[in-house]
TrEMBL record:
<dbReference type="Pfam" id="PF04672">
    <property type="entry name" value="Methyltransf_19"/>
</dbReference>
<dbReference type="InterPro" id="IPR029063">
    <property type="entry name" value="SAM-dependent_MTases_sf"/>
</dbReference>
<dbReference type="InterPro" id="IPR006764">
    <property type="entry name" value="SAM_dep_MeTrfase_SAV2177_type"/>
</dbReference>
<protein>
    <recommendedName>
        <fullName>DUF574 domain-containing protein</fullName>
    </recommendedName>
</protein>
Amino acid sequence: MSATSGPEPTRIDTSRPHPARVYDYILGGKNNYPVDEQLAVQVLDIDPTVRDSARINRLFMHRATEWLARSGTRQFLDIGTGIPTEPNLHQIAQRIAPDSHVVYTDNDPIVLRHAEALLRSTPEGATHYLEADVREPGQIIELATDVLDLSRPVALSLISLMHFIPDEDGAYDLVHGLMDALAPGSHLVFSHATADGSEEEAERVVSLYRKGGVTLRPRTRAEVARFFHGLEPVGPAPVLVSHWRPDAEEEELAPEDPPVTVYAGLARKP
């Protein structure tokens, strides 16, 4: 695996929580700091279902990546990858197709350090890491071309990322612009936090993140659906993250499923 960053690497700031490290704590990881743990514990005190949502969200990534690899996708661009948590995307893809090429990006340099140490490609494939921010899509696309052939289909993964991008930062334009840069036959793998059904808890969680210097913007199902504009859904999209299956015709409710606060979906660029 190789790593690339911009000309001025970001200095690690452990005085403020970072979404990737908060998420790591929620998933039971150890690669976080007291400031991240403090925020995560406060969030879980307000809404304990966040832990189930994070775990099930991870399983959605597993299912979507496996389906894509079995369907012939050999190139993956994962933006906002977060702290490595096995099985990682490249492990799933390369287990099925060892020649898969995967590019990870995140704006937390701590994630880069863990990625350099832990993310190893198969000899036939490639695994690459970029220190980059989704708000700079042009830079991501330019650097990704060292590993990915953008004349061929790419699976773009934005897993639990865009709820940290407010409308005023052009959240929809960022996603649509990234998909515009990819070849026909590319896919969007997407999940996003919602306040639907838990508005009071979500408002308190948003306030906690704001106090920590992090913007959190949960969106309704209709708002999440706008990210898929112009794409062809594979299975229903968006649906609650626990209910997505590539062969499902509609969302099937399972009473035994834990409540989740995330919508997800997979869609193809025609």
